[in-house]
Amino acid sequence: MLTRWSDFGFGDLGRGFDTFENLRRRMDRLFEEWDRDTETGLLGGTGARQRLVTWPAANLYDAGDAFVVQAKVPGVDRKDLEIQVNQDSFTVSGERKAEAPEGYAVHRRERGGLKFSRSFNLPSKLDPAHAEASLKNGILTVRLAKAPEAKPHKIDVKVS
């Protein structure tokens, strides 16, 4: 006797919904694991479990007349950083070098070298001529002045 069977359950609606429900649960679990792995900031891993992390971690603030970005770049020297500002975006890139001092042998390397580049799109135009950057204690602070037409304007209310 032959029995008709469909993986998606077109002949049997109950079985089809179970299959799609199982697929949805598996996809949810996959994305939850991805989010958890990237939030904890784990690098490395093996095989299919290798994790990707956005680096450097950054905070972006709107200070009214400018945007302020603070990014963690520990171990990166000032001369190894490059910042490019466009009309409504900017990019920070650089390299953290992991070289042993001259005359020393490496016995363990847990913090290797790293090349990075990260771009930010901003909601208004910038004035690249008035951008400033500073590096202190591994924190890169970039102040990006807004273009004059993008700055907030105060309007006085007159009494009539």
Explain this structure to me?
This protein has one helix and seven strands, in the order H-E-E-E-E-E-E-E. It has a four-stranded antiparallel β-sheet with strand order 1-2-7-6, with no helix packed on it. The protein has one helix at residues 13-40, and strands spanning 58-62, 66-72, 81-85, 89-96, 114-121, 132-136, 139-145. With 160 residues, the chain is an alpha+beta fold.
Give the SSE layout.
Layout: H1 13-40, E1 58-62, E2 66-72, E3 81-85, E4 89-96, E5 114-121, E6 132-136, E7 139-145
Antiparallel strand pairs: 1-2, 2-7, 3-4, 4-5, 6-7
Secondary-structure element string: HEEEEEEE
Tell me the name of the CATH class of the largest domain. Mainly Beta
Give the oligomeric state.
single chain
SS element count, helices: 1
Concise synopsis of the structure shown:
It is built from one helix and seven strands, in the order αβββββββ.
What are its keywords?
single chain; 160 residues; alpha+beta; Immunoglobulin-like; 4-stranded antiparallel sheet; 3-stranded antiparallel sheet; 7 strands; 18% helix; 28% strand; flat
